[in-house]
Write a structure and sequence with these properties.
The chain is an alpha+beta fold. It contains ten helices and twelve strands. The strands form three sheets. Strands 1-2-3-5-4 form a five-stranded antiparallel beta sheet. A hairpin with a 2-residue loop joins strand 9 and strand 10. Helix 1 packs antiparallel against helix 2, helix 7 crosses helix 8 and helix 8 crosses helix 9.
Length: 299
């Protein structure tokens, strides 16, 4: 790689801050307009990663085989990277401690003296916006799903709305089977990769109106407004099969996992968040007791 500059990263960084840094580099190096747009998209997505990346490191920026390359090191992945990098017009390589991004370039002009001037201007502290801070407060840093606090707020609001307008509402609680065995066999980093992968499948199966959250540990919850128990069971079965048929790759290893699920619907006796969660939790334990890798509904 022909090194352009190294940029210290002071987490958390905002999307605007990192985007502006890269656009400044793109403009000074004479990248074509189309390539500058690609760099902008790239920077915005990278900033989403960087906001949740607590380890302080640096990014090396250079040109490698007619591609702009960004090499983050050290890198501790805390966000489901494939969920938004797979569909973008550039390539990436992610290892246990390094993230490399490659953005194809049609035209580039590398000027050594100019790069040194750029490098002197880059180390800027970027303060996260209030919206970004609010987002971080409601999100689970490992999976990117909502956290338990956000779940409690959303469930209270959805139950009040469903009770007032007599709409159905269901709750799905999921648990990864034998999760401790995954940690013991492949390591805790592989367990984290498993959690992120299951969270990614949850997002792909959920509708726009659904609310997916990490309840704690290896447990997840999905609030499903305007959905009766039959519909929620159908969703849980579809997600269960998706997980069962998937292979999780971590480093040179690959492994499978399964999930068990419990489903409960809104009733007169389950009109409060605690009672609905308790009913779904009991159904989940029934699924565990019946052999795991299955879905049970509350009585």
């Amino acid at each position: 790689m022909q090194l352009i500059t190294r940029v210290p990263l002071i987490a958390p960084a905002s999307q605007v801050g990192l985007r502006n840094r890269l656009l400044f580099i793109a403009g000074q190096l004479g990248f074509a307009q189309l390539e500058a747009v690609r760099v902008t998209v790239m920077a915005c997505e990278v900033a989403r990663l960087q906001m949740l990346h607590t380890a302080q490191g640096e990014v090396a920026i250079g040109v490698d085989r007619r591609a702009l390359r960004m090499d983050f090191s050290p890198w501790e992945p805390t966000w489901p990277i494939p969920s938004f990098l797979d569909d973008l017009p550039y390539d990436y390589r992610c290892g246990p401690s390094r993230l490399k991004l490659f953005c194809p370039l049609g035209h580039a002009r590398v000027d050594g003296s100019r790069c040194r001037e750029i490098s002197a201007l880059l180390p800027l502290r970027v303060v996260p916006s209030r919206a970004e801070l609010e987002m971080l407060a409601k999100r689970d840093a490992l999976t990117g799903l909502y956290n338990r606090h956000a779940l409690q707020e959303q469930l209270s609001a959805e139950l009040a709305r469903a009770t007032r307008y007599h709409h159905p509402l269901s709750l799905v609680m999921l648990d990864i089977d034998h999760f401790k065995r995954i940690n013991d066999t492949y390591g805790h980093s592989a367990g984290d990769a498993c959690l992120r992968y299951v969270a990614r499948l949850m997002r792909s199966c959920c509708r726009g109106q659904d609310f997916a959250a990490r309840f704690g540990g290896e447990e997840f919850v999905v609030i499903m407004p305007h959905t009766d128990v039959d519909g929620a069971v159908h969703f849980a079965e579809r997600l269960r099969l998706e997980v069962q048929q998937s292979s999780i790759r971590y480093g040179k290893s690959s492994f499978h996992c399964t999930v068990s699920a419990g489903v409960a619907g809104l009733t007169e006796s389950r009109s409060q968040p605690e009672s609905l969660i308790e009913a779904a939790d009991k159904a989940l334990y029934q699924a565990k007791g019946a052999g795991r890798n299955r879905v049970c509904r509350a009585d």
